[in-house]
Amino acid sequence: MKTYRVAILGCRSRGTCAGRVYHAHPRTEVVGLCDLLEDRLHALSDELQVEARFTDLDKMIRQTHPDIVAIPTAPSLHAPLALRVLEHGVHIDVEKPMAMDLVEADAVAAKADEKGVQIAVHHQWRVHPWAQAITRAFDAGKIGDLRYIYASGKGYYGGFGLMEIGTHLLTQMIKFGGPCQSVTAHATTRGRPITPRDVLPAPRGNGTIAGDRVSASLQFGNGVTGTLLQHGFDKLNLDAHVVELYGTEGRLLWHPHAAWWLPTPHVLPVDGKDQWQKLEPLYPDSFETAMNGMDGGQMMEGDYWFVEEYVRALDEARPHECSGAEGRHVIEIISGIFESAAYGRRIDLPQVDREHPLLRWRREAGLGDPESMPTVDAEWHEEEQRRLGE
Ligand SMILES: NC(=O)c1ccc[n+]([C@@H]2O[C@H](COP(=O)([O-])OP(=O)(O)OC[C@H]3O[C@@H](n4cnc5c(N)ncnc54)[C@H](O)[C@@H]3O)[C@@H](O)[C@H]2O)c1
Asked: How far is the CA of 118 from the centre of ligand 1 (A)?
């Protein structure tokens, strides 16, 4: 059985997780690492005992001949670096979100098609042990027919939360609901509807956003409706960070750290039957031996599954469950949410106009692109408070 060769482009936090799981998995081997900053490059390479170290990604790919290149870098670099890596005709594992807008996402998808390679977008929560538990229960018919999906974020500033966390939640929603056909959304800043002046560059360089609270109603292909809330709160975690599937006979609730089943649709509380039951997480067979007690936390359990799924997908010559097509569709939904909130109308997907809807909205209002903002969360929020005169 083939061992897939993997190169890591970016050696900080997410690159370290990627390096560790690709190194640990019995069917993948880390053959090269690259970072512009040599201390990071050497720290991770020393840990993984890999000698092929580079500061030039093209050189790394030419010299190490990887099957897959992981791209765990800052959001605004996802598409530009993906395009550069794809030029070499290798599969990619690019961090989420896949791109900052649809123009970028389309370019990345087209380049992968042209080269005949795969894009996998790092939506690891969709294949995480708790998500596997949800899928198993769902496929076993434990909630009957799906009738509604609810998801909410982590309490981040709404538009930022949509890019940062919403991308993960949406990929889980479309897994069960099917492709999203249309979007109706509302966004407010400090309780009043957004205006073109509320369009801002997001914290952490996460694209162009608007609204501190974003609420969206989504119509899915399987005839199911969904609600996605991304509401900013002063205290994080007031929003639950969940995806909940409502069926005709029960409910399933996903959270990054657990998953539960309610064996009644709970239309109204039912005495003795409305107790949530915790599900059992599912791990790949190789997980325990490969990770050998390594404490990578919840996120790395998902990262391991993500690698396992890549191995299975390549073995079977089929797309990764977190494919580029799904990743691009998520960007369509996010753009649709922003467009609907800005223009106050339902948006049918996929949209013909691929320009960022918020930048178009500003331009039509006679405004240019928004001025730059700090990328660090705390400084960004201070600047936003100043802008709002608080
Ligand atoms: N999947 C998840 O659950 C999850 C969780 C947190 C963050 N993220 C995503 O991960 C990313 C951030 O990861 P991070 O904090 O490790 O990123 P980072 O930006 O701190 O580190 C990226 C590294 O890549 C290097 N780099 C950038 N351009 C390069 C180039 N051209 N050649 C070589 N090296 C280059 C940088 O020097 C840096 O060391 C974001 O996209 C974020 O959305 C995902």
From this structure: 20
| Residue located nearest, by CA, to atom 15 of ligand 1 | 13
Superfamily of domain 124-281+296-390: Dihydrodipicolinate Reductase; domain 2 (3.30.360.10)
Nearest to 323 by CA among 114, 154, 105, 133: 105
- The segments of the chain whose pLDDT lies below 50 read none
Q: Indicate the SS3 state at residue 63.
A: helix
Pocket test for ligand 1, best of 95, 123, 162 (most atoms within 8 A of CB): 95
pLDDT at position 237: 66
Residue ranges per domain, the chain? Answer: 4-123, 124-281+296-390
The alpha carbon of residue 384 and the mean position of all alpha carbons in its chain are separated, in whole angstroms, by 25
CATH 3.30.420.40 fits 4-123, yes or no: no
Ligand 1 pocket test: which of 44, 73, 87 has the largest number of ligand atoms within 8 Å of its C-beta?
Answer: 73
Q: What pLDDT sits at residue 295?
A: 67
With a 6 A CB cut-off, is 327 part of the ligand 1 pocket?
no
CA count, 13 A, side-chain hemisphere, 89: 5
Separation of CA 337 from chain center: 16
- pLDDT of 63 reads 98
Determine whether the shortest distance from the Cβ of 301 to ligand 1 is under 6 A.
Answer: no
| Closest C-alpha to ligand 1, atom 24 | 10
CA of 353 to the centre of ligand 1 (A): 29
Segment 94-146, tens digit of pLDDT: 999 999 999 999 999 999 999 999 999 999 999 999 999 999 999 999 999 99
Task: Calculate what percentage of the chain has a pLDDT beyond 90.
Answer: 92
Task: Confirm whether 4-123 and 124-281+296-390 share one CATH topology.
Answer: no
* Residues 206-250 pLDDT 10s: 999 999 999 999 999 999 999 999 999 887 666 789 999 999 999
State whether the beta carbon of 322 lies less than 6 angstroms from ligand 1: no
pLDDT for res 239 = 72
Instruction: Could you list the beta-strand ranges (E) of the chain.
Output: 4-9, 28-34, 53-54, 68-71, 91-94, 119-121, 146-152, 180-189, 192-193, 200-201, 208-209, 213-220, 225-231, 242-247, 251-255, 258-262, 277-278, 347-348
Would you call 48 exposed, middle or buried from its count of C-beta atoms within 10 A (0-12, 13-18, 19+)? middle
